Amino acid sequence: MKFEILDAPDFGCLRVRFDGAGEQLVAEAGAMVSMSSGLKLETKARGGLLAAAKRSVLGGESFFQNSYTSTGAGQEIILASGMEGDLREHALDVGQTLFLTGGNYLAHVGERFTVDTQFGGVKGLFSGTGLFLLRLSGPGTVFFNAYGALHEVDVGPEGYVVDTDHIVGFSDSLRYELRRFNGTKGLFASGEGFVCHFSGQGKLWLQTRSPRSLARFLDPFRPVQQSSSGGSSIADALGD
Amino acid sequence: MNVEIEYGPAQSWMRVGLKPGDAIQAEAGAMVRHSPGVEIDTRLNSGRRAGFFRKVLVFLTALLRKLFGGETMFINEFTAPSGGEVVLAPVMSGTIQRRTLREGERLFVQTGSYLASTGDIDTQLRWGGLRALFGGEGLILLECAGNGELFINSYGGITAVDVEGSYIVDTGHIVAFDGALDFKVRAIGGIKATLFSGEGLVCEFNGRGKVYVQSRNFKALVGWVSRYLW
Amino acid sequence: MQIDLLYKPSHTLARVVLQPGEGVRAESGAMVGMSPSLALSTDGPMAGGGFFKKLKRAVLSGETFFTNTFTATRAPGEVLLAPPLCGDMCVHDVRPGERLVIQGSNYVASPDTIDVDTQFQGFRRFFSGQSLFFLTAAGRGQVLLNGFGAIEALDIGEPYPDGRGRLIDTAELVLDTGHLVALTEGLDYEVTTVKSGLIASYFSGEGFVLRVRGRGRVYVQTRNREAFGREVGSALPAKQQ
């Protein structure tokens, strides 16, 4: 398989060219841009389709993946996320582990590559902040997105403080502690959500934009649920 | 007419220098700024050779789509009797590409990707399925033919794919394609695939020709940011 | 205070490096990351001190303008700032005697030597019903602005002293208000609709325009935040009343 990242750093997408039959790539569901007709598509979900559907209905995190298998030489596929921004390739050796924000995962290759969504500890720590973490282990290669640009911080002994909405991933060698911004629960919202204090030695990947900020910006523009009638009238539409 | 595309490839806009007698038409809402001598005329994009009945049909379609929140087919035409400049931009971030059309050439452009045009280009609305008419999944295309310049915007970057045989593109990622290609809008696979794969409608292309694919998709943006709403 | 703008122009990040004793005030929600040694304070409506001479909520939109101040104490430190939407940032040097009028959501940060006032009334009566409010910045120092898309610095009438802008060859400009980032106060401006008549305006798709005349600088963003908000927002799931 040959990998090419197109349109980075603003609209990174992944173009994969298969060399022969039987090659496989796993990707986030819904990421397919275009593909040769001969590629075989199979949908999987962590814990099985029904479990994932249940988690999704009950408001939990679900994680659907599609696997694409080639049936011949010369086939290709292009994959892209719904968010705009950069796309990076990261290889992990046997035993190497990385934490990645679930929403930023795009695809991976490697039969023995593991994507773990169920681990306790860290997951519990971040629940309530809206941060859904994956624990990735090699051998294999993962392709992940950033909302905006990807900014790398080499965390040193003095540590670094980040807004959790901007976390993309970090090495498993780092220690982390979650706090509210400003440390207090004061009467006036600071506008910041949670911050994470990283310490130790390791790499921290940040994205320069926050999905929650975009959601907050868009909220006033959303249609409003009509309580009684259930549909908007022509008069409403003209008056918009 | 002098056109410069600036701030590409991601935040592109086009600066149009108009001389007396020049005219450029652009989709409604595209105007960023203009010099005071520029005049704006709003009309329906029913195509240059539209007869009365076609104009009525396009008007009713446009009205329906405006009411249901879809693309309008109203365009603004900019002229400058004593010269001037107008700057045009699309709503989403991405690229603007200039494409010259000559007599005999045909290009299908997804309506959201039409930004502006000059010269004598005829555009006809085509759609893939009735649901597409009301802003749902599906393909709404402008079939463009004639003589002139087309300015096409993409959400994201543009990749030209040479189709030889059979190729599938998610409908939300189609910018434009050569008129010579056969195309069919369908669901990606069986019931399980359609429900769980997360993929919506796709367009299957057959034959030989170019398809212009954009690296981002409006519906995918909506799906992605929806997870962060409350 | 040193400001570096990284990853221009689509996903720009501002890295502000502060020397001991230096502080920067930033729009709430702008912090991406920072050195742990920086001191932090939140400036809400009850905050004392010189920042808000009179703070008043922007009545029409219900916007409340909050900032946080980051200060380096014993050691230098950095704070990374970013706006809520994709696009660029730029720095405008405010000189004594000059005021910069800024569309509220385009303000990112400024040091203490800049007074930011929310009392500007100039555009208010034209934007009722829309979530727009305006600030003015005066004093001496750098103001960090954001733009939705790329940012064009357009000089009208004469080149602006810092020489970084593009000079237009007419003395007047007509600008869609959704593309306005900021302008210097000396300019004459007037808000109108682009076409006369309700129906024409409705179908033209164009909103309000600003006619700008005189001498000064206008910052223009290449994308229209209101149009983007409407287009994407209207496709989102409905919310409860």
Structure characterization notes:
The complex is a heterotrimer of chains A (240), B (230) and C (241). In chain A, the strands form four sheets. Chain A has a six-stranded antiparallel sheet with strand order 5-6-3-10-13-8. Chain A has a six-stranded antiparallel sheet with strand order 11-12-9-16-19-14. The longest helix of chain A is centred in the first third of the chain and has 9 residues, at 49-57. Chain A contains four helices and 19 strands. Chain A is 11% helix and 41% strand. Chain A has a single domain, classed as Mitochondrial biogenesis AIM24 (Double-stranded beta-helix). Chain B is of the alpha+beta class and 230 residues long. In chain B, the strands form two sheets. In chain B, strands 3, 5, 6, 8, 9, 10, 11, 12, 13, 14 and 15 form an eleven-stranded antiparallel sheet that branches. A four-stranded antiparallel sheet of chain B has the order 1-2-7-4, with no helix packed on it. In chain B, a hairpin with a 6-residue loop joins strand 1 and strand 2. Chain B starts with a strand and ends with a helix. Residues 130-135 of chain B have low confidence and may be disordered. Chain C has one domain: Mitochondrial biogenesis AIM24 (Double-stranded beta-helix). Chain C has two helices and 20 strands. Chain C has helices spanning 198-204, 225-233; strands spanning 2-6, 13-18, 23-27, 31-34, 39-43, 67-71, 77-81, 89-94, 99-103, 107-110, 114-117, 134-139, 141-146, 151-156, 166-167, 172-176, 180-184, 188-193, 208-213, 216-221. Chain C has a seven-stranded mixed sheet, with no helix packed on it. Chain C has a six-stranded antiparallel sheet with strand order 5-6-3-10-13-8, with no helix packed on it. A four-stranded antiparallel sheet of chain C has the order 1-2-7-4, with no helix packed on it. In chain C, a hairpin with a 6-residue loop joins strand 1 and strand 2 (13-18). Chains A and B meet through strand 4, strand 5, helix 3 and helix 4 of A and strand 12, helix 3, strand 15 and helix 4 of B.
